[in-house]
Design a protein that fits this description.
Immunoglobulin-like; binds molybdenum atom; binds the ligand Nc1nc2c(c(=O)[nH]1)N[C@H]1C(S)=C(S)[C@@H](COP(=O)(O)O)O[C@H]1N2; Sulfite Oxidase, Chain A, domain 2; metal-binding; 438 residues; single chain; sulfite oxidase activity
Length: 438
């Protein structure tokens, strides 16, 4: 690592501001009205002519058993889909765009492969696995070119990790923009990833002592390139070829992508073709003009990677509201928490915009760098609420309020937004996206 880069990294002390102990007490809450749900969910299945609404229980013959050799979701689940918008593209061109995971519709921590959010800078590439090659060269003792079969001969390992675009919620820095949880935080997913630890291959081909940085390059039209420090590469980076038990989907980088657990999804180069080791970072386009953090001083922070502790309530949410509840009903508040710095230790819930907090339960698997489900049973009272969740992780970080985050990084940063999200619930049980500025 050269001196300049070291200095830059040293200046990335933003996360130090959000230690658990520093979490402030309650400050007066100002709710900002949200614009009406622009990109809200589609009409109910009632009006869909493709769906037959009758039940003849026990009297009809079903489809033949293997009608769908590769299974598809029930037709009644047709509303559970990725969604995109021209606002999240380069001037409306949907080749450089992003589609979002319907996080409020999912259960558990595994996102089905067909619903994994997708970001492409130059379209979804289709790479022939027989022609695919991975070159590993630069400051290594024995450079190699691997075929897919050769890669799969190395011992494989599987891990459940979240993947999040550092631009998730980028539109929310200057106020609430989107009307659904899917659009507020859907640039993320979680899956079981299988592949080869890069360290396993490097142990075999030998890393030269001067090797400090690794360039990863994709084979798609954008030739997405990012640099990673060797410490991370040797720690837990994998070359992934499977997702939830099957081959990666084209959208996720078939046949092979890089996977840097807990770090910006942008580093997880898809349709991977080349890894080069060097003694300095490359300063590629995606780490200079993009994916740097512009601070209030006008200086940009380069090389910041791990995603800070974060959370969102997914039920209720604008697209999963409480309008069907009656006073006195017991209802589960559920959500997701995650941190690129480690394991979620706890999640608090507030009903009054952050003045008072109660502790939620973590449920199911609680794993490092992985979505963690939280839950809280609540007696519905039909009263307006400002509902929030606040996560903390085992590195000591706590999720900041909107103003705490702004105070440190300003509003031009674009990336790594992890400020507390607020859902306003009205007397009717309708839910909207607002911001509490405290
Ligand atoms: N080759 C290549 N890799 C890429 C990209 C790309 O456009 N091309 N997009 C990056 C960005 S910005 C993100 S957020 C993640 C998204 O991964 P996903 O599409 O599997 O969700 O892939 C990253 N890797
Ligand atoms: Mo991204």
């Amino acid at each position: 690592m050269n001196k300049k880069t070291e200095e830059k990294i040293a200046s990335v002390s933003r996360r130090d501001f959000f230690k658990k102990t520093a979490s402030a007490g309650a400050v007066a809450a100002t709710a900002v009205a949200a614009p009406s749900a622009v990109l809200a969910s589609e009409a109910s299945t009632k009006d869909d002519p493709n769906i037959v609404h009758h039940v003849k229980w026990g009297t009809t013959l079903g489809d033949e058993c293997n009608k769908n050799p590769y299974g598809v979701p029930s037709k009644y689940e047709h509303n559970v889909v990725r969604r995109t918008s021209a606002l999240m593209s380069s001037a409306g061109d949907m080749h450089a765009a992003i589609s979002m995971t319907p996080i409020a519709e999912l259960k558990g921590i595994i996102v089905p492969n067909g619903l994994h959010f997708t970001r492409t800078h130059n379209g979804v590439a289709h790479v022939d696995p027989n022609k695919w090659r991975l070159m590993i060269h630069g400051l290594v003792e024995k450079p190699i070119v691997l075929t897919l079969d050769q890669l799969k001969r190395y011992p494989s390992e599987s891990f459940i990790y979240f993947l999040e675009c550092p631009s998730n919620s980028a539109a929310e820095w200057k106020g609430p923009q989107f009307g659904t949880a899917q659009f507020v935080k859907g640039m993320m997913s979680c899956a079981q990833w299988t592949g080869v630890r890069l360290k396993t291959i490097l142990d075999e081909i030998g890393l030269k002592p001067e090797a400090k940085w690794m360039l990863a390059e994709g084979s798609d039209g954008s030739e997405m390139s990012r640099t990673l420090p060797v410490e991370k590469v040797l720690d837990d980076v994998i070359i992934a070829y499977a997702q939830n038990g099957e081959a990666l989907r084209d959208e996720q980088g078939y046949p092979v992508r890089l996977f840097a657990p807990g770090w910006e999804a942008n580093l997880c180069v898809k349709w991977l073709k080349r890894l080069e080791f060097g003694d300095e970072p490359w300063h590629a386009k995606e780490e200079t003009s993009k994916y740097t953090a512009l601070t209030a001083s006008g200086k940009a922070i380069q090389h910041f990677y791990a995603l800070e502790t974060n959370s969102i309530i997914t039920s209720p949410a604008p697209e999963k509201d409480w309008t069907d509840l009656k006073k006195g009903d017991l209802v589960e508040i559920e959500g997701l928490a995650w941190s690129g710095y480690g394991t979620i230790k706890g999640v608090d819930i507030s009903f009054d915009g952050g003045k008072n907090w109660v502790e939620a339960q973590l449920k199911g698997l609680v794993l490092p760098k992985c979505w963690t489900r939280f839950s809280y049973m609540y007696k519905y009272e039909g009263k307006p609420l400002l509902l929030q969740s606040r996560s903390y992780d085992d590195s000591g970080d706590v999720q900041p309020t909107v103003n705490q985050e702004k105070g440190v990084v300003g509003v031009e940063c674009v990336y790594h937004r992890n400020a507390i999200i607020t859902w306003a619930v009205n007397e009717k049980g309708e839910v909207s996206n607002v911001q509490v500025r405290s």
